[in-house]
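Quick entry, no commentary yet.
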Amino acid sequence: MNLKITSIVAAIGFIIISCGQRSIKQEGEHAKDSTTITSVATNAVIPFFEAKNYFVKNTYKNEEVATLKITSQEEFDNVFGPATVMGEKGKPTQLDFSKQYALAVITPVTNKETSLRVNSLTYRNTEIVLDYKITEDESQSFTTQPFLLILVDKEYSGSVNFEKE
C-alpha cells in the first residue's frame, strides 16, 4: 500500500514539475519573440534598468548637461566610480559591457536639489530615443553633480537621441 501511494505521489510530483518547466520555457520563448518584434517596431518601448550606487568622478567636467552612450568599461571608468554603501543593496549594479551599454545624462555641478527621470526609452524610426526630465528645486548648502544612468541590452542597438522634456 505504501509503495502505491509513494509511486502515485512521485508521479504527480513529476507531472507538476514537467508542466512547470514547459510553462516557463514557453513564456521565455514568447518573451523573446515579443522582444524581437518590439525591437524593430517604430515607437516600441525599450526595456532598461537604472544603475545604482555610482558617482560622477570629480575629474569629469561639464559646463552643460552631458549625454553619453557608454559602450566599454574603460569609457565608464573615466566618468563614474563605485559608491558602495553598507547593506545588501549597497553594492554598485553589476555591469557587463559585452551584453549591455549605458546611457547617461549628467548635469553640471550644482547647489540646487536636482532630480533626473526617464520619461521613455523607445525606437523612433531608426534611432533610440531617451526622453528625460530634469527637475530643480531649492538651493542647498552643498554641491552635487546629479546624473541619470541606465543600462540597456545590446539587442537594442543604434544611434541614440537624447530629448529633454
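second:
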Amino acid sequence: MAALIERHPLQRLPSPSRGTSALVHLAGLASFFWSFKFMHENPNQANEAYGWHFQYLTVIGLTLSTLTFLVALLADVTLSRRLFLVKNLLSVCSAPMEVLISVLYWGLRLIDERLVLPDWAVIPLHADISFHAIPSIVMLIDLLFFSPPWTITALPSLGLSGLIAFGYWFWVERCFSYNGFYPYPIFELLPTPGRIGLFSVSAAVMALSTGTLKWLYGRVNGFGVPEQPGSRPGAIVKQESLKK
C-alpha cells in the first residue's frame, strides 16, 4: 500500500523526485521563461493593446504550462504529493491545450502562414519552435513518463474543452472591441458564424487530443484492468500493450 501511495503502478519514472523529473521540469521552465523574455525584448503592437499578449491562445497556453511546471518543480524539490496532485490536475488542461495550439498553428501555417501571423509579425524559427512546439513536447514527456494515468472521461473533457474554447472566443471579441483588430488574421477573414465554427472545431480537437493522450499513455505505460478473482483488493494489473 505504501508503494501505491508513493507511485502509481502505471507511472513509468519516479515523480516527484529531485532527479530526472526535476531536470525535465527545470528544462521546460527554462524554455518557457525564454519565450517570455523574447516577448519582452521584441515588443510589437500587442504590447500596447488591450489584453496585452494574452490575446493570443499561444501565450495563454504558455502561461498555463509555466504554472503547471512551476508546481511540478516545487513538488520535485519538496517531494510533496499534494503539489504533485495539483500539477496533474493542471496538466489535464494544459497538455491538451498545448497539443491543440501546436496542431492548429502548424496546420494553418502550412496552408498559409498569414492565417496565423499578421503582416507586421516576424518570428525567427527558433522562437517559433519555442512558442509553438516545445511546450507540447515537454508536456507530453511529463505526461508519458512522470505522471499517473488521467481519469477524466469523454464527456467532462468535451465540457472542459468547450468552456476553454468559447471562453477564449468571448475574450477575443472583448479585446477586438477595444483594439479594432484580432490577434490572429484568420479571425478577420471569417464572419461570425465562421468563427463559431472554428471555436467549435477547436473544442472538439482539444477533447480529441485529451482522449488521444490517454490512449498514448496506455500504449507507452500499459493499461489498468479490473482486478482478477483471487487478487488482493485494489490490485492493478499492468498490460504492456493492447491485443492487436
